[in-house]
Amino acid sequence: MKVEILAALRETDGYVSGQDLCEKFGVSRTAIWKAINQLKLSGYEIEAVQNRGYRIVSTPDILSENELRSIRKTKWLGNKIIYEPVMVSTNTKAMQLAEEGVPHGTLVVTDKQMSGRGRRGRKWETPAGLAIAMTFLLRPDIIPNNASMLTIVAAMAVVKGIEAETGLRAGIKWPNDVVINRKKVCGILTEMSAQSDYVNHIVIGIGINVHVNEFPEEFQDMATSLDSEYGKKINRSALIERICEFFEDYYEVFLQTEDLAAFVKEYNSYLVNLNQSVRVLDPKEPFEGKARGITARGELLVDTWESRRLVSSGEVSVRGLYGYV
Predict the structure, then answer these.
(1) Per-residue DSSP letter, 284
(2) Helix pair angle (2-10, 18-25), 10° resolution
(3) With 90 as the cut, is the pLDDT of residue 178 above it?
(4) How many CB atoms lie within 10 A of CB 66?
(5) What is the mean pLDDT of residues 48-66?
(6) How many Å apart are CA 273 and CA 269, to the nearest integer?
(7) CA distances (Å), origin 103, targets 72, 98, 254
(8) What interhelical angle do 29-41 and 2-10 show, nearest 10?
(9) Residue 146 DSSP label
(10) Distance between CA 186 and CA 154 in Å, rounded?
(11) What whole-number distance in Å separates Cα of residue 149 and Cα of residue 254?
């Protein structure tokens, strides 16, 4: 009932009477009072005025299933929310849940991630209360070879979510690192279980530095956080909801063609590498050139002094000639 009360209080800028809440949920005034007090203990500032009712004065940065459910506006993404204060990895948890049959659109979230994974097996830790660690669990009817493009779809949703929630202009370093002011603020990792011609499930893990203000020495010149760039605290649950809304819309467009044809122009507008000199760290043969945007398959077009080359993601990384971007 706490979820429903939160949603009801948020539907109006004024007060909601205790009697209205009783009638709406079919419970006693005592039950409403107890639920309100539990919400206060969770950190919500709720004002109670005799003969007027209750209203939310402020919402702290609470990351919980109740909070996420109470603000949810999506059609299917987040239809089931799995929240635990601590997880080893949201992707690992989502993969386990997928094997157990949890539905398409499940959202897995934690406040503290002990051992998340980045590209090439890198460890991605999420300190308690300082970041977003979440995973979308999807069961799309698509060809397995097309699944990797969903990582780019997720990156676009993160960029749009950050922009809508904060006004900050974020960009993408190909293929899916979200950056602000040339520093990484978000990493995305997509993993899949599939047969040769059939996708069992896909999990898309998203890690965002929100309140983080200290980074290991080796990342200080290439990492940042939303608070550092925005200059004030950001509500993580609100940002998660924004990202979910954009991802849901982009995902439905992607399914129509199973490629990125509808997104090429928009993606390139966010591509920080566009028309910039880059070094492609191909393990077989590194080379340099100018990035010219992506194809409908998400490949990066790079013009070298002798030809135009297509760069596919995977084990290939792209860097600026003189740094991360």
Answers:
(1) S
(2) 130
(3) yes
(4) 22
(5) 89
(6) 10
(7) 17, 8, 20
(8) 80
(9) G
(10) 11
(11) 9
